[in-house]
Amino acid sequence: MAVLSRLEWSHIEVLLAVAELGSLSAAARRLGVTQPTVGRQIGAIEECFGVELFTRLASGMEPTEAAMALLEPARAMREAANKLELTAAGRSETAGGTVRVTTSVFIAHHVMPPVFARLRRLAPEISLELVASDTTENLLFREADIAVRMFRPRQLDVVTRFIGEVELGLFGAKDYLDRAGRPERGDDLLRYDFVGYDREEQLVQGFRQAGFNVDREFFTTRCDNQATYWELVRAGCGLGFGQASIARADPDLEEVPLGFELPRLPIWLTVPDVIRHRPAIRRVWAVLEADLLAIADGSEQR
Amino acid sequence: MAVLSRLEWSHIEVLLAVAELGSLSAAARRLGVTQPTVGRQIGAIEECFGVELFTRLASGMEPTEAAMALLEPARAMREAANKLELTAAGRSETAGGTVRVTTSVFIAHHVMPPVFARLRRLAPEISLELVASDTTENLLFREADIAVRMFRPRQLDVVTRFIGEVELGLFGAKDYLDRAGRPERGDDLLRYDFVGYDREEQLVQGFRQAGFNVDREFFTTRCDNQATYWELVRAGCGLGFGQASIARADPDLEEVPLGFELPRLPIWLTVPDVIRHRPAIRRVWAVLEADLLAIADGSEQR
DNA sequence: CGCCATCCATAAATTTATGCATACCCAATC
DNA sequence: GATTGGGTATGCATAAATTTATGGATGGCG
After folding, report:
1. pLDDT computed for residue B227 by the predictor
2. pLDDT tens digit sequence for B28-77
3. Which of A159, A160, A145 has the alpha carbon at shortest distance from A99?
4. What is the percent of chain B where pLDDT is above 70?
5. A82 and A69: one domain?
6. B87: Cβ under 7 Å from strand C?
7. Which whole-number Å values give the CA distances from B241 to A141, B59, B173, B236, in the listed order?
8. Strand D footprint nucleotides (protein C-beta < 7 Å)
9. Structural domain ending residue among the three candidates A40, A57, A90
10. Domain with B22 in it: what CATH number?
11. Does the beta carbon of B205 lie under 8 angstroms from any beta carbon of chain A?
């Protein structure tokens, strides 16, 4: 027996995401679920209303007129939901202490520095420690309190929260590209200079997985400080990898089309079950959550 | 592993219901789910926010200060959701035809007449037929298009929608009670005159189940028209049963405490799967839904 | 003071929804 | 015209939620 259930409020959030992003897959990424799930939920809404809300195109989902009419109240709902969430967050008590955050080396370099800067400003009473490590066991051994991971931890006794995904890209200074020339189709990217990391192996491994046999020395300029790394790229020392959303907004930089696909980085926050209620932990968690949400793709919602 | 998931919008609806009705059970009745479900969802919200939202009393759930602070944005969400639902409903095409609605005899007498009146006014292009019958198979044999039932149908190939519950009560005119005297504790209610139905047996059976051995003649005044029935009660012909929410608002009437509990009437809308997309059906369904929602308990939401 | 109704919390059983893998479609590109 | 990359739809095993069925606790009422 089919049940034509009352429209669930959660479904409206899904409707919004699909309408705004134009595809089930993109909406699924924003919401941290899979594409079939989003598809089925959209189907349920159309079923419930008896109206076609999207026309299925090869390029994605195009909202019909009916769907457009629903957008305004849906956005009003989101606004109210945000307000509610903020109100709730404001009710949690605050207190000092030290919070240790662990992330992969890559995330520590590429994502965390500006986040930590804002965290210092927003919660000066809390001391921070950043543990850059690719070991995943830190939380269990209590070497850190909160982990930012690029996968969903499967351990017991931890609490996780999906944040979103960060899109990476390859960028170079306009200056440099003027000198070295823009890449032609089929061109060999290896002829360019690359800015790399000194101690970190991830970039090297990434290149090797893509079929380019390079070693650490391949990167003609190396630096372990992310802020400096980025300045080296902007100064024209060579091509470098960074967050696409940030780099694209930089007028001095130009995106370089890659021959292969860079993985998107999903972000998961994790905290051990037993300590997550401590006020300082809650506070850091809340700020991390907000900042990372703003960084992750699909954050145009606010 | 525990997942501290993003707050789901549906949960806010639950929060609202519990805060407004003051108990898990009442909220569950309004939402058409069971009490443990509501309890767990409230738990999940508190978990997510890290704040106690309700103090558990024996008499129910009392909202804490934190919960009160969330009420205003939550109501804003509900308002937006209502607007969205109305917008969506307005998008369905309209067309004439005849729609047959079947209900139990009891519902046909007690609930439907004013609903049908409004339905006539709102959709004059649709002819209506009311089939009062306690047989549950009408839909299968296609004797009717839409059924209003006091239970959730379990057949295949039909679509159902929970509406809410109607509370019944025993009432008498102030006039009449002045004459006959108010009942004392332990008093025998049978000494009063009762207004009953002529052809309907449900009231008789109800009395028998409550331990009073009465027959049809016990009802000193009888009438098969619900509107007239009610006027007879208001005129002081005796005590009569009716919708509590309506009767309590009537200054001429007084509620008479009963020695036993009257069952609440849950309301389910049902339509066969294959015809529910026909415009006239959709239209009648939408009006029935709106009207019955307004009648059912817990409708103070609008 | 015991009875009874109402309420919440908890434990098994079942329904429901989700994720994964895969097939398929279309457009752009070489 | 094959290939690649992005999208959507579907079948099935699994995980998650709900229902159902209990028990315990409290307050009203005779």
Report:
1. 65
2. 988 889 999 999 999 999 888 888 899 888 888 888 888 899 999 999 99
3. A145
4. 81
5. yes
6. no
7. 68, 28, 12, 13
8. 5-11, 16-21, 25-27, 29-30
9. A90
10. 1.10.10.10
11. no
In percent, how much of chain A has pLDDT > 90? 13
Of B90, B107, B132, which residue sits at a domain end? B90
Residue with tokens 């419930």: A48
The 3-state DSSP class for residue A177 equals helix
CA distance A116 to A123: 10
Which burial class, exposed, middle or buried, applies to A190 when counting CB atoms under 10 A from its CB (0-12, 13-18, 19+)? exposed
Residue A298 has pLDDT above 60, yes or no: no
B281 contact residues in A (CB cutoff 8 A): none
**Of A180 and A109, which is predicted with more confidence?**
A180
Query: For residue A188, what are its two tokens?
Result: 């060999």
- Within this chain, do residues B145 and B271 fall inside the same structural domain, yes or no? yes
Mean pLDDT for chain B overall: 79
- Determine which of A98-102, A130-134, A150-154, B224-228 has the lowest per-residue pLDDT on average: B224-228
CATH number of the domain encompassing residue B112: 3.40.190.10
Name the residue among B2, B91, B154 with its Cβ closest to that of A51: B91
Look up tokens 């969802």; give the residue: B41
Q: Same domain for B135 and B156?
A: yes
Q: pLDDT category, A71, cuts 50, 70, 90?
A: very high
Q: What is the mean pLDDT of residues A154-161?
A: 76
Question: Percent of chain A having pLDDT more than 70?
Answer: 82
- B264 or B26, higher pLDDT: B26
Beta strand A146-149 with A97-103: parallel, antiparallel or unpaired?
parallel
Give domain status of residue B1, yes or no: no
A21 and A60 assigned to the same domain: yes
pLDDT at A238: 83
Q: Judge if A104 and A86 occupy the same domain.
A: no
**Residue B180's CB: how many other CB atoms inside 10 A?**
16
Number of structural domains chain A divides into: 3
B201 in the same domain as B52? no
Shared domain for A160 and A269, answered yes or no, is yes
Q: Which two tokens stand for residue A281?
A: 């932990």
Cβ separation B84–A92 shorter than 8 A: no
- The DSSP call for residue B263 is P
Q: Which amino acid is at A120?
A: R
Closest nucleotide to the alpha carbon of A38, via C1': C18
The distance (Å) linking the CA of A58 with the C1' of C27 is 8
Domain assignment present for residue A3? The answer is no
Question: How far apart are alpha carbons A275 and A147 in whole angstroms?
Answer: 13
CB contact under 8 A, A87 and B77: no
| Interchain CB distance below 8 Å, B161 and A3 | yes
Average pLDDT over residues A259-285: 80
Residue B200: its pLDDT value, please? 65
Mean pLDDT across B71-87 = 90
Nearest-nucleotide field for A152 (CA, C1'): C19
> Domain for residue A4, yes or no?
no
Mark whether B131 and B269 lie in a shared domain.
Answer: yes
B172-199 per-position pLDDT tens digit: 888 888 888 887 655 577 788 888 776 6
Residue B2 lies in a domain: no
Tell me how far apart the alpha carbons of residues A140 and A132 are, in angstroms, rounded to a whole number. 16
For residue B6, give both structure tokens. 């993003």
Domain limits at B155? Answer: 97-167+264-295
